[in-house]
Each structure stands twice: as C-alpha cells, then as structure tokens.
C-alpha cells in the first residue's frame, strides 16, 4: 500500500521558518510522504529559509511576484487546484494567517481534501488589524478539519466559536522549536557575523536595538511615525546602534530609507537571513517590532519588547512586565524606548524557560496528532 502524502503549503518567510521543524520531523518518517509545496507568494526572503533549514522542496508554483492580493489569490488558487488534483494529498497542512494559508485551505476544501491549520485560533478581535491577516486566519480556521492551537487561549477561542474539542490540540508554537534550533547552532559554533555580513559594523562594546516594521495597516502614517521615533531615539542615544532590516515591500523601503538613511547610528539592511536575525535578537538591548513571529521570539529569548501595533493576537506576553503594546504614536514609542535605554524603565524580561508561546516540542506534538488522525482515517469505513 502506498504511503499517505502530507502536503505542507508555504509561501512566505515566516511560514517557512515556522513549518521547518514539522518538515524536519515528517521527513524522518518512513510511513508518510512529505510534499513541501512553495506557492511563491514571497520569493527571495523565502529562499534563504529553505536553504538554511535544508528543506526538501517538492513543487514550486509559478505565481507572479508583486501582484495585488486579488490577483495573487486567483493565480495561487488556479495553481494549487492543479497541484492538488495531480498529487491528491491525504492531508494539506497550512500555517498561520497569510494569503497562501487561506488560499491553500480554500483550494483543498473545494476538492474535499482535509486541512490541518497550524497556529489556529489566534484573534486580535479587529478585522482591520492585522489586515488582511486577521480574516485570513479566521477563514482558514473555518475551512480546516484539524486545528493546531499554539496556546490554551487559542484553543479556548476555537471552542467558543463552536469547533469540536476532538479536532483541536494545544501544541505550543513551532516558532519556539525553530528559534531554539537556530540558537543552539549559534551557541555550539560560537557563530557571529563575519566581515562580509551587513552586521559587521556592530561593535561588541556598543548596545544595539532591533527594529522591524512591515504590517500593511501601518503603511503610510504608522510607518512614518515609527521612523520618526527611531530618528529621535538615534539622535538622543548616539552610543546605541539602531538596526533595521528593511522588508522588501517597496512601500516599506521608500518610507524607511526616506526617513532614516542619514543617521550614522541607524543601520539599514536588506532582510537578514534567520541566523543573523536570531543572533541580533540574542544580543539586542531592546526589540521594537510589529512582526508576529518576532514578538514570540523576543519573549522566548527574554528580551524587552515594544509592540508597534494597537492590537495583538498574541496577548500572552502582555501579562508580564517585559512587553508593552505601544502602537505607532511616535511620542509613546520614543518615551518608552528612551526610558528603557536610560535604565529609568526596567522591562523585566520573561524567564526564557517559561515562554508562554511554547517549549520547543510543538512540532513533535503536531506530528503525533497528524499520525493519529491518519491512522484513524484508514480505520474508518469508506462512505
Ligand atoms: C499578523 C502577523 O503577525 N502575522 C504573522 C505573519 O508573519 P510575521 O509578521 O511574523 O512576518 P515577518 O516579520 O516577515 O517574519 C517573521 C520571521 O522572520 C524572521 N526574520 C525577520 C526579519 C529578517 O530580516 N529576517 C528574519 O529571518 C523573524 O525572526 C521571524 O521568525 O505570518 C506568519 C505565518 O503564517 C504568522 O505566524 C504571523 O501571525
């Protein structure tokens, strides 16, 4: 009898990072055929991750870059329909809240293929923020058959929305697995950026702050305000370096380079590969971000964190003193970051051994849920 195939469908950098630990586990099994399908929603930033985690790609779908969400949706839908028809996976696994996640869930649903949604049940409660991700995640939850909830709060949300408990499993977030894997490699090899790296200019005796911002709902005023706050911080704290890896989205590039390129202690780089980014977070004094993944990683590393958003679907970290939701108001960002850098505000870090987001075993739990579910399916009589 042929092995059941499990299709992992990913299209962006964060999905690839977060699915990598599961891909590693499934690749090691001889009773499952792993099919990693890349939709091409992002190209360049995704390639770095595939290479670094040595992920075996089964299919790359030819989706045009830089198109509108509607065009991306329709092109991906057509390509995924063809791919699923051809391969008939026993299970389609999607991740999080991207366009790829939603479209792959819908394309699978149309063919009555079961979907497992990893990182199910997160909600900001605001359909416009994060936009469009909040609704993509809700729609994927509606279409999925199995829900891998990263936290108990995410499970409770799914239960409150009427999903059956038997289809939900609390697993922890796979981002913690990926982060600890990378941190271990950095520690084991005493790795640090070499002279060819964009971070070569960082001097060990100077403190640094990491900044990232790319959310669509921040484009325009929000991003400009964030950049103004960073400019003010850089002028006030000349003994600190402010490192900002800039997302490849042209709107983000224009806003960030336009506002910040003339400051000597602001280091603007292209997106960093995951090893560089993890090293930067491990050594950062403070992290400012609107990225969901970096929120989870900063907390897991026990770093003081300012979230540059008005809402978050990851409220667990707000229960401790190390994390503040500061929004995009430049004065609020400046005051809070300035006080941390002046040691007037102690943002007590989380204990890294008790991250609310996971313990590094999420991929193992997802694997056993999938294996259990596949076994149950073969036992069920054909209808
Ligand atoms: C609303 C929201 O939050 N939606 C999220 C969205 O992802 P995001 O906002 O977290 O995305 P990014 O910030 O692009 O990526 C983050 C990852 O990339 C690494 N990184 C970053 C900069 C760099 O220069 N080099 C890197 O390696 C970084 O360490 C981290 O692991 O989709 C995910 C998948 O479904 C969801 O989970 C997640 O909810």
TrEMBL record:
Q: What is this protein called?
A: UDP-N-acetylglucosamine 2-epimerase (non-hydrolyzing)
* Annotated source species: Billgrantia aerodenitrificans
Q: Which gene encodes it?
A: wecB
Q: What's the EC number here? A: 5.1.3.14
Q: Which family does it belong to?
A: Belongs to the UDP-N-acetylglucosamine 2-epimerase family.
GO MF annotation, one: UDP-N-acetylglucosamine 2-epimerase activity
This protein's source sits in the domain of life called: Bacteria
Keyword Nucleotide-binding appears in the UniProt entry: no
Keywords for the protein's UniProt record, in alphabetical order: Isomerase
Q: Which residues form a coiled coil?
A: none
Domain UDP-N-acetylglucosamine 2-epimerase stretches: 25-370
* Annotated catalysed reactions: UDP-N-acetyl-alpha-D-glucosamine = UDP-N-acetyl-alpha-D-mannosamine
Q: Note the CDD domains from the entry.
A: GTB_UDP-GlcNAc_2-Epimerase
Matching entries from InterPro entries are given as: UDP_GlcNAc_Epimerase_2_dom (IPR003331), WecB-like (IPR029767)
- What's one Pfam family here? Epimerase_2
